[in-house]
Amino acid sequence: MSTPAISLNDGTSIPWLAFGSGTAFFGKDASKPVTDAIRAGFRHIDAAQMYKNEEYVGAGIAAAGVPRAELYITTKLNKVPEGQTVRDLLVDSLRKLRTDYVDLFLIHMPTLHEDLKATWREMEGVQREGLARSIGVSNFSLRYLREVLEVATITPAVNQIEYHPYVSRAGASLIATHKEHNITTSSFGGLTPLIRATGGPLDAVLTKIAARVAQGSGKAVTEGQVLQLWLRKKGIVCVTTTSKLERLQEYLAVRALPDISDEEVAEIDEVGSTQHHRAFVSFPIALCRVHTDYTVTCRPNG
Ligand SMILES: NC(=O)C1=CN([C@@H]2O[C@H](COP(=O)(O)OP(=O)(O)OC[C@H]3O[C@@H](n4cnc5c(N)ncnc54)[C@H](O)[C@@H]3O)[C@@H](O)[C@H]2O)C=CC1
Ligand SMILES: O=CCc1c[nH]c2ccccc12
């Protein structure tokens, strides 16, 4: 069964469900989880230079034996060291990932770039050259998105951000701006209400909707799957991860579940908006010191 795809503003499309090689796999050998994910049915792999494991991701992709054209590979730009270019860093990623193009290349964090406009111009250059089919951004607040839009001749296709019901109220104006420019939202941390902010007001709502979808579809449905159905119904890419085979099956089983209703989406929105919980608050300086070779430039978070 194939994963539904979302059309991007550049005419390409992106698989709705992605397997992430970050969080638990930071700096680690992610090859087996990546191979497992592809063999189980994932076709979109989310990587990043900052994760310091692109070689492993490349090895995992190769071992899965799925033709490159059937895969969608995202990676993300780290801070560009003095004397190097965006292109240099992408070419290095391509070598590690064992491919000659990525489907999507994102600026990982706006605060790592002193001249964001110049960085975006370089991003446009690598897309024009065919090294990245689509380009976009990640962790961009409105302020940084506007900065890029001021000079963009290619509008970012995607903004990958922390997105789940407990940040949806805080993120409403950003999402509205995405819609205005036809920028696709991609979510990480989507399971936060269940795993990082348990005991909140959504718990009962998710359980109720899971039971309703289970009854309607004749399939077992978990609260996590309801959160993923909420993203899918909103046309938001879901980037998730796991090292467990049974969890991979749980994520992929969402493909066979029917959409939740507009009323259920509204109920999740409404109840979610009564609580705020951002799990990925600030740049992980400690992780950065361990896994990167440079000092972080401190630009204020917007
Ligand atoms: N652009 C960025 O700055 C960021 C991107 N990411 C990307 O997103 C990917 C996914 O990140 P997450 O936020 O971790 O995804 P997520 O919020 O979907 O959580 C996945 C985690 O939840 C666990 N899990 C799932 N169901 C569970 C349950 N019922 N009970 C307990 N645990 C459960 C999984 O084992 C896994 O560790 C990363 O690997 C990375 O590729 C993540 C963070 C930041
Ligand atoms: O790709 C994810 C990197 C990451 C880890 N922790 C945080 C906090 C805030 C933004 C991004 C991240």
Layout of secondary structure:
Blueprint: E1 5-7, E2 13-15, E3 17-20, H1 31-40, E4 44-46, H2 54-64, E5 72-77, H3 86-97, E6 102-107, H4 116-128, E7 132-138, H5 142-149, E8 158-162, H6 172-180, E9 184-188, H7 192-195, H8 202-217, H9 223-233, E10 237-240, H10 245-253, H11 262-272, H12 285-291
Parallel strand pairs: 3-4, 3-10, 4-5, 5-6, 6-7, 7-8, 8-9, 9-10
Antiparallel strand pairs: 1-2
Protein architecture, described:
There is one protein chain. The protein is α/β, with parallel strands linked by helices and 302 residues long. The protein has a domain at 5-191 and 234-257: NADP-dependent oxidoreductase domain (TIM Barrel). It is 40% helix and 15% strand. The protein is built from twelve helices and ten strands. It has helices at residues 31-40, 54-64, 86-97, 116-128, 142-149, 172-180, 192-195, 202-217, 223-233, 245-253, 262-272, 285-291; strands at 5-7, 13-15, 17-20, 44-46, 72-77, 102-107, 132-138, 158-162, 184-188, 237-240. The strands form two sheets. An eight-stranded parallel beta barrel has the order 3-4-5-6-7-8-9-10, surrounded by five helices. It has a two-stranded antiparallel sheet with strand order 1-2. Helix 2 (54-64) packs across helix 3. The radius of gyration is 19 Å and the shape is globular. The termini are far apart. The structure holds 1,4-dihydronicotinamide adenine dinucleotide and the ligand O=CCc1c[nH]c2ccccc12. It comes from Phanerochaete carnosa (strain HHB-10118-sp). Substrate binds at residue 108. The record marks 76 as: Lowers pKa of active site Tyr. GO terms for molecular function: oxidoreductase activity, acting on NAD(P)H as acceptor. This is NADP-dependent oxidoreductase domain-containing protein.
